[in-house]
Amino acid sequence: MAPVPISQIKVGHIDDVQELRKARPAAIPERYVRDMAERPTLASTVPLSSSMHIPIIDLSKLVEGDEDQWRTEMVKLASSCEEWGFFQVINHGIDRSLLETIEKIAMEFFMLPLEEKQKYPMAPGTVQGYGQAFVFSEDQKLDWCNMLALGVEPHFIRNPKLWPTKPAKFSEILEMYSKDIRKLCQNLLRFIALSLDLKQEAFNKMFGVAVQAVRMNYYPPCSRPDLVLGLSPHSDGSALTVLQQGRGNSVGLQILKDKTWVPVQPVPDALVINIGDTLEVLTNGRYKSVEHRAVTHKEKDRLSIVTFYAPSYEIELGPLPELVDENNPCMYKRYNHGEYSHHYVTNKLQGKKTLDFAKIQAKIST
Protein backbone atom coordinates (compact mmCIF):
# COMPACT_ATOMS: atom_id res chain seq x y z
CA MET A 1 0.00 0.00 0.00
CA ALA A 2 1.47 3.36 -1.07
CA PRO A 3 1.68 6.24 1.41
CA VAL A 4 -1.36 8.54 1.34
CA PRO A 5 -1.00 12.32 1.23
CA ILE A 6 -2.37 13.90 4.39
CA SER A 7 -4.83 15.95 2.36
CA GLN A 8 -6.57 12.75 1.27
CA ILE A 9 -7.15 11.37 4.75
CA LYS A 10 -10.71 11.89 5.95
CA VAL A 11 -10.95 14.70 8.48
CA GLY A 12 -12.96 12.44 10.80
CA HIS A 13 -10.00 10.07 11.01
CA ILE A 14 -7.18 12.59 11.38
CA ASP A 15 -7.51 12.61 15.18
CA ASP A 16 -7.60 8.82 15.43
CA VAL A 17 -4.02 7.62 15.31
CA GLN A 18 -4.94 4.01 14.53
CA GLU A 19 -6.73 5.12 11.39
CA LEU A 20 -3.88 7.47 10.59
CA ARG A 21 -1.41 4.61 10.95
CA LYS A 22 -3.47 2.42 8.60
CA ALA A 23 -3.48 5.19 5.98
CA ARG A 24 0.35 5.34 6.04
CA PRO A 25 0.63 9.08 5.40
CA ALA A 26 3.73 10.26 3.55
CA ALA A 27 4.58 12.45 6.55
CA ILE A 28 3.50 12.84 10.15
CA PRO A 29 0.66 15.41 10.24
CA GLU A 30 1.85 18.73 11.62
CA ARG A 31 -0.75 18.52 14.39
CA TYR A 32 1.33 15.72 15.98
CA VAL A 33 4.83 17.06 15.34
CA ARG A 34 6.30 18.48 18.53
CA ASP A 35 8.44 21.57 18.88
CA MET A 36 12.16 20.77 19.05
CA ALA A 37 12.37 21.24 22.83
CA GLU A 38 9.59 18.69 23.43
CA ARG A 39 10.78 15.91 21.15
CA PRO A 40 12.08 12.68 22.70
CA THR A 41 15.82 12.16 22.24
CA LEU A 42 17.81 9.05 21.40
CA ALA A 43 19.45 9.40 24.82
CA SER A 44 16.29 7.94 26.33
CA THR A 45 17.22 4.57 24.82
CA VAL A 46 20.61 4.38 26.56
CA PRO A 47 20.78 1.53 29.13
CA LEU A 48 20.43 2.80 32.70
CA SER A 49 22.63 2.16 35.68
CA SER A 50 20.88 0.35 38.52
CA SER A 51 20.73 3.64 40.45
CA MET A 52 18.45 5.05 37.75
CA HIS A 53 15.82 2.32 37.97
CA ILE A 54 12.76 3.34 39.98
CA PRO A 55 12.47 1.44 43.30
CA ILE A 56 10.57 -1.83 43.64
CA ILE A 57 8.39 -2.32 46.73
CA ASP A 58 7.41 -5.84 47.83
CA LEU A 59 3.96 -5.37 49.34
CA SER A 60 3.97 -8.85 50.86
CA LYS A 61 6.83 -7.77 53.16
CA LEU A 62 4.70 -4.90 54.44
CA VAL A 63 1.56 -7.01 54.86
CA GLU A 64 3.01 -10.23 56.27
CA GLY A 65 6.80 -9.87 56.55
CA ASP A 66 8.76 -10.12 59.80
CA GLU A 67 9.75 -6.97 61.68
CA ASP A 68 13.09 -6.55 59.89
CA GLN A 69 11.51 -7.02 56.45
CA TRP A 70 8.74 -4.58 57.36
CA ARG A 71 11.15 -1.88 58.52
CA THR A 72 13.42 -2.29 55.49
CA GLU A 73 10.50 -2.07 53.08
CA MET A 74 9.00 0.94 54.91
CA VAL A 75 12.28 2.84 54.61
CA LYS A 76 12.34 2.00 50.90
CA LEU A 77 8.72 3.13 50.50
CA ALA A 78 9.37 6.46 52.22
CA SER A 79 12.47 7.19 50.12
CA SER A 80 10.62 6.14 46.93
CA CYS A 81 7.83 8.63 47.62
CA GLU A 82 10.22 11.38 48.68
CA GLU A 83 12.98 11.03 46.08
CA TRP A 84 11.18 9.54 43.08
CA GLY A 85 7.42 10.00 43.47
CA PHE A 86 7.23 6.63 41.67
CA PHE A 87 7.76 2.98 42.52
CA GLN A 88 6.83 -0.42 41.16
CA VAL A 89 4.93 -2.75 43.48
CA ILE A 90 5.25 -6.54 43.35
CA ASN A 91 3.33 -9.23 45.27
CA HIS A 92 0.43 -6.79 45.30
CA GLY A 93 -2.26 -9.45 45.64
CA ILE A 94 -3.95 -9.01 42.25
CA ASP A 95 -4.18 -12.28 40.38
CA ARG A 96 -2.04 -12.53 37.26
CA SER A 97 -4.93 -14.01 35.27
CA LEU A 98 -7.03 -10.90 35.98
CA LEU A 99 -4.17 -8.64 34.84
CA GLU A 100 -3.90 -10.67 31.64
CA THR A 101 -7.67 -10.63 31.08
CA ILE A 102 -8.06 -6.85 31.48
CA GLU A 103 -5.22 -6.32 29.00
CA LYS A 104 -6.78 -8.75 26.53
CA ILE A 105 -10.20 -7.14 26.71
CA ALA A 106 -8.76 -3.62 26.46
CA MET A 107 -6.79 -4.56 23.37
CA GLU A 108 -9.87 -6.20 21.85
CA PHE A 109 -11.72 -2.92 22.30
CA PHE A 110 -9.03 -0.88 20.54
CA MET A 111 -8.96 -3.39 17.67
CA LEU A 112 -12.69 -2.91 17.00
CA PRO A 113 -13.71 -1.02 13.84
CA LEU A 114 -13.63 2.75 14.27
CA GLU A 115 -17.40 2.95 13.79
CA GLU A 116 -17.92 0.73 16.84
CA LYS A 117 -15.52 2.71 19.05
CA GLN A 118 -17.11 5.98 17.99
CA LYS A 119 -20.34 4.88 19.69
CA TYR A 120 -18.65 6.02 22.91
CA PRO A 121 -17.36 9.49 21.98
CA MET A 122 -15.43 11.67 24.39
CA ALA A 123 -17.18 15.02 24.23
CA PRO A 124 -14.95 18.12 24.01
CA GLY A 125 -13.91 19.33 27.45
CA THR A 126 -14.72 16.01 29.15
CA VAL A 127 -12.56 13.07 30.20
CA GLN A 128 -14.91 10.11 29.70
CA GLY A 129 -15.35 8.09 26.53
CA TYR A 130 -13.22 7.21 23.51
CA GLY A 131 -10.95 9.77 21.90
CA GLN A 132 -8.38 12.27 23.13
CA ALA A 133 -8.67 14.13 26.42
CA PHE A 134 -7.25 17.55 27.33
CA VAL A 135 -7.65 19.00 23.84
CA PHE A 136 -8.96 22.57 23.96
CA SER A 137 -7.84 24.32 20.77
CA GLU A 138 -7.38 23.66 17.07
CA ASP A 139 -3.68 24.52 17.15
CA GLN A 140 -2.86 22.35 20.18
CA LYS A 141 -0.47 19.48 19.52
CA LEU A 142 -2.08 16.04 19.71
CA ASP A 143 -0.72 12.95 21.43
CA TRP A 144 0.03 9.80 19.39
CA CYS A 145 -2.51 7.85 21.41
CA ASN A 146 -6.11 6.69 21.50
CA MET A 147 -7.86 6.61 24.87
CA LEU A 148 -10.89 5.10 26.53
CA ALA A 149 -11.57 6.80 29.85
CA LEU A 150 -14.34 5.89 32.29
CA GLY A 151 -15.49 7.01 35.72
CA VAL A 152 -15.83 3.99 38.03
CA GLU A 153 -16.57 5.02 41.64
CA PRO A 154 -18.72 6.36 43.15
CA HIS A 155 -21.45 5.29 40.77
CA PHE A 156 -22.82 8.79 40.20
CA ILE A 157 -19.69 9.76 38.24
CA ARG A 158 -20.31 6.98 35.71
CA ASN A 159 -21.78 7.57 32.30
CA PRO A 160 -23.27 4.13 31.49
CA LYS A 161 -23.70 5.07 27.81
CA LEU A 162 -19.90 5.23 27.49
CA TRP A 163 -19.24 1.74 28.88
CA PRO A 164 -18.64 -0.49 25.82
CA THR A 165 -20.94 -3.44 25.16
CA LYS A 166 -18.21 -4.98 23.00
CA PRO A 167 -16.14 -6.98 23.85
CA ALA A 168 -18.95 -8.90 25.53
CA LYS A 169 -17.53 -9.09 29.08
CA PHE A 170 -15.86 -5.67 29.10
CA SER A 171 -17.92 -4.19 31.95
CA GLU A 172 -17.80 -7.35 34.05
CA ILE A 173 -14.00 -7.63 33.82
CA LEU A 174 -13.48 -3.92 34.46
CA GLU A 175 -15.65 -4.11 37.61
CA MET A 176 -13.58 -7.02 38.97
CA TYR A 177 -10.31 -5.32 38.13
CA SER A 178 -11.33 -1.97 39.59
CA LYS A 179 -12.47 -3.58 42.83
CA ASP A 180 -9.04 -5.17 43.33
CA ILE A 181 -7.20 -1.97 42.37
CA ARG A 182 -9.32 -0.06 44.91
CA LYS A 183 -8.24 -2.44 47.68
CA LEU A 184 -4.61 -2.03 46.59
CA CYS A 185 -4.86 1.78 46.77
CA GLN A 186 -6.40 1.63 50.23
CA ASN A 187 -3.65 -0.72 51.36
CA LEU A 188 -0.87 1.42 49.92
CA LEU A 189 -2.31 4.54 51.55
CA ARG A 190 -2.15 2.80 54.95
CA PHE A 191 1.57 2.20 54.58
CA ILE A 192 2.20 5.64 53.08
CA ALA A 193 0.46 7.15 56.12
CA LEU A 194 2.64 5.08 58.47
CA SER A 195 5.76 6.16 56.55
CA LEU A 196 4.85 9.75 57.53
CA ASP A 197 4.27 8.82 61.20
CA LEU A 198 0.52 9.28 60.74
CA LYS A 199 -2.22 6.90 61.85
CA GLN A 200 -2.55 4.18 59.24
CA GLU A 201 -6.15 5.07 58.33
CA ALA A 202 -5.43 8.82 58.14
CA PHE A 203 -5.84 9.09 54.37
CA ASN A 204 -8.56 6.47 53.94
CA LYS A 205 -10.78 8.15 56.55
CA MET A 206 -10.12 11.61 55.18
CA PHE A 207 -10.92 10.63 51.57
CA GLY A 208 -14.53 9.61 52.23
CA VAL A 209 -16.00 7.64 49.33
CA ALA A 210 -12.93 7.88 47.12
CA VAL A 211 -13.21 8.76 43.44
CA GLN A 212 -11.82 6.16 41.05
CA ALA A 213 -11.45 6.41 37.28
CA VAL A 214 -9.73 4.27 34.67
CA ARG A 215 -8.08 5.20 31.39
CA MET A 216 -6.92 2.72 28.79
CA ASN A 217 -4.25 4.07 26.44
CA TYR A 218 -3.34 2.55 23.10
CA TYR A 219 -0.18 3.77 21.36
CA PRO A 220 0.12 2.55 17.74
CA PRO A 221 3.58 2.34 16.15
CA CYS A 222 4.80 5.61 14.65
CA SER A 223 7.10 5.91 11.64
CA ARG A 224 8.81 8.92 13.27
CA PRO A 225 8.81 8.36 17.05
CA ASP A 226 11.43 11.10 17.36
CA LEU A 227 8.85 13.72 16.31
CA VAL A 228 5.84 12.83 18.46
CA LEU A 229 4.81 12.06 22.03
CA GLY A 230 2.42 9.32 23.07
CA LEU A 231 1.31 11.39 26.05
CA SER A 232 2.26 14.97 26.92
CA PRO A 233 4.35 15.66 30.06
CA HIS A 234 2.16 16.06 33.14
CA SER A 235 1.69 15.20 36.78
CA ASP A 236 -1.52 13.50 37.92
CA GLY A 237 -4.25 15.26 39.89
CA SER A 238 -5.00 12.09 41.86
CA ALA A 239 -3.73 11.00 45.27
CA LEU A 240 -2.38 7.74 43.82
CA THR A 241 -2.15 6.48 40.26
CA VAL A 242 -1.80 2.78 39.41
CA LEU A 243 -0.37 1.94 35.98
CA GLN A 244 -0.41 -1.48 34.40
CA GLN A 245 2.07 -1.67 31.55
CA GLY A 246 1.00 -4.20 28.93
CA ARG A 247 2.96 -7.46 28.70
CA GLY A 248 5.58 -7.49 25.98
CA ASN A 249 5.40 -3.72 25.75
CA SER A 250 8.23 -1.62 24.48
CA VAL A 251 9.44 0.87 27.07
CA GLY A 252 7.16 3.89 26.79
CA LEU A 253 6.73 5.51 30.20
CA GLN A 254 9.36 8.10 31.16
CA ILE A 255 9.61 10.14 34.36
CA LEU A 256 11.45 13.41 34.90
CA LYS A 257 14.22 12.82 37.43
CA ASP A 258 16.91 15.45 38.03
CA LYS A 259 16.00 17.13 34.71
CA THR A 260 16.49 13.85 32.83
CA TRP A 261 13.77 11.73 31.25
CA VAL A 262 14.23 8.27 32.78
CA PRO A 263 12.51 5.30 31.07
CA VAL A 264 10.60 2.95 33.38
CA GLN A 265 11.63 -0.62 32.63
CA PRO A 266 8.60 -2.95 32.94
CA VAL A 267 8.91 -5.59 35.69
CA PRO A 268 6.87 -8.81 35.15
CA ASP A 269 3.57 -8.71 37.10
CA ALA A 270 4.47 -5.40 38.76
CA LEU A 271 2.23 -2.35 38.85
CA VAL A 272 3.69 1.16 38.64
CA ILE A 273 2.51 3.52 41.39
CA ASN A 274 2.95 7.27 41.37
CA ILE A 275 2.19 10.06 43.81
CA GLY A 276 -0.39 12.54 42.54
CA ASP A 277 -0.78 16.28 43.17
CA THR A 278 -3.27 15.59 45.98
CA LEU A 279 -0.73 13.68 48.08
CA GLU A 280 1.87 16.37 47.40
CA VAL A 281 -0.51 18.93 48.92
CA LEU A 282 -1.49 16.73 51.87
CA THR A 283 2.16 16.00 52.72
CA ASN A 284 3.07 19.71 52.32
CA GLY A 285 5.47 18.85 49.51
CA ARG A 286 7.36 16.10 51.33
CA TYR A 287 6.08 13.53 48.83
CA LYS A 288 5.99 15.08 45.36
CA SER A 289 4.00 14.34 42.26
CA VAL A 290 6.39 13.86 39.36
CA GLU A 291 6.16 14.91 35.75
CA HIS A 292 5.95 11.96 33.36
CA ARG A 293 5.21 11.30 29.69
CA ALA A 294 4.89 8.47 27.17
CA VAL A 295 6.95 7.97 24.01
CA THR A 296 6.19 5.81 20.98
CA HIS A 297 7.99 3.07 19.07
CA LYS A 298 8.66 2.75 15.35
CA GLU A 299 7.47 -0.86 15.03
CA LYS A 300 5.73 -1.93 18.24
CA ASP A 301 2.38 -0.86 19.62
CA ARG A 302 1.82 -0.38 23.34
CA LEU A 303 -1.07 -0.64 25.79
CA SER A 304 -1.38 0.75 29.30
CA ILE A 305 -4.22 0.70 31.83
CA VAL A 306 -4.24 3.53 34.34
CA THR A 307 -6.35 3.92 37.49
CA PHE A 308 -6.66 7.28 39.24
CA TYR A 309 -7.58 7.23 42.93
CA ALA A 310 -8.53 10.45 44.73
CA PRO A 311 -10.62 11.85 47.60
CA SER A 312 -14.35 12.46 47.35
CA TYR A 313 -15.18 15.69 45.51
CA GLU A 314 -16.73 17.24 48.65
CA ILE A 315 -13.54 16.97 50.71
CA GLU A 316 -11.66 20.10 51.80
CA LEU A 317 -7.93 19.54 51.39
CA GLY A 318 -4.75 21.21 52.57
CA PRO A 319 -1.42 20.27 54.15
CA LEU A 320 -1.85 18.06 57.20
CA PRO A 321 -1.05 19.99 60.41
CA GLU A 322 1.36 17.22 61.49
CA LEU A 323 3.54 18.00 58.46
CA VAL A 324 3.68 21.77 58.91
CA ASP A 325 6.15 23.43 61.31
CA GLU A 326 8.77 26.19 61.46
CA ASN A 327 11.15 24.21 59.29
CA ASN A 328 8.37 23.18 56.88
CA PRO A 329 6.07 26.20 56.42
CA CYS A 330 2.70 25.69 54.79
CA MET A 331 3.17 25.63 50.99
CA TYR A 332 -0.43 25.08 49.84
CA LYS A 333 -3.81 26.62 50.57
CA ARG A 334 -6.93 24.74 51.63
CA TYR A 335 -9.35 24.07 48.80
CA ASN A 336 -12.26 21.90 47.72
CA HIS A 337 -11.05 18.79 45.90
CA GLY A 338 -13.95 18.93 43.44
CA GLU A 339 -12.90 22.43 42.40
CA TYR A 340 -9.33 21.26 41.85
CA SER A 341 -10.52 18.24 39.84
CA HIS A 342 -12.57 20.54 37.61
CA HIS A 343 -9.56 22.84 37.19
CA TYR A 344 -7.37 19.84 36.26
CA VAL A 345 -9.65 18.37 33.57
CA THR A 346 -10.39 21.74 31.97
CA ASN A 347 -6.74 22.59 31.29
CA LYS A 348 -4.33 20.99 28.86
CA LEU A 349 -1.53 18.77 30.13
CA GLN A 350 1.42 21.06 30.78
CA GLY A 351 3.93 19.65 33.23
CA LYS A 352 3.02 20.51 36.83
CA LYS A 353 1.40 23.81 35.94
CA THR A 354 -2.02 22.68 37.15
CA LEU A 355 -0.73 22.46 40.72
CA ASP A 356 -0.29 26.26 40.75
CA PHE A 357 -4.00 26.22 41.67
CA ALA A 358 -3.08 25.01 45.17
CA LYS A 359 0.15 26.91 45.82
CA ILE A 360 0.06 29.77 48.29
CA GLN A 361 2.61 31.70 46.26
CA ALA A 362 1.67 30.57 42.77
CA LYS A 363 3.62 32.39 40.10
CA ILE A 364 1.39 34.44 37.84
CA SER A 365 2.41 34.09 34.22
CA THR A 366 2.38 37.23 32.12
Low-confidence stretches: 1-14, 42-46, 362-366
CATH class: Mainly Beta
Strand order of the largest sheet: 1-2-10-7-12-5-4-3
Assembly state (oligomeric) = single chain
N- to C-terminal separation?
49 Å
- Shape by Cα distribution: globular
Q: Beta fraction of the residues?
A: 15-25%
Here the CATH topology equals: Jelly Rolls
**Largest sheet at a glance?**
8 strands, mixed
Query: In DSSP terms, counting alpha (H) and pi (I) runs of 4 or more, how many helices?
Result: 9
- Given helix and strand content, the structural type is alpha+beta
- Named CATH architecture: Sandwich
Q: Give the domain tally.
A: 1
Order of helices and strands: HEHHEHHEEHHEEEEEEHEEEEH
Pfam family, one: DIOX_N
GO molecular function: metal ion binding; oxidoreductase activity
Domain Fe2OG dioxygenase: 210-311
Keywords: Iron, Metal-binding, Oxidoreductase
Write structural notes for this entry.
An eight-stranded mixed beta sheet has the order 1-2-10-7-12-5-4-3. The longest helix has 26 residues, at 170-195. The protein has 366 residues and is α+β, with helices and mostly antiparallel strands. The protein is globular, with a radius of gyration of 20 Å. The model is unreliable at 1-14, 42-46 and 362-366 (pLDDT under 50). Helices cover 27% and strands 19% of the residues. The protein has one domain: B-lactam Antibiotic, Isopenicillin N Synthase, Chain (Jelly Rolls, Sandwich). It has helices spanning 17-23, 59-64, 67-84, 96-110, 114-117, 170-195, 202-207, 277-282, 337-345; strands at residues 56-58, 86-90, 129-131, 146-153, 211-219, 231-234, 240-245, 253-257, 260-263, 271-275, 292-294, 302-310, 316-317, 335-336.
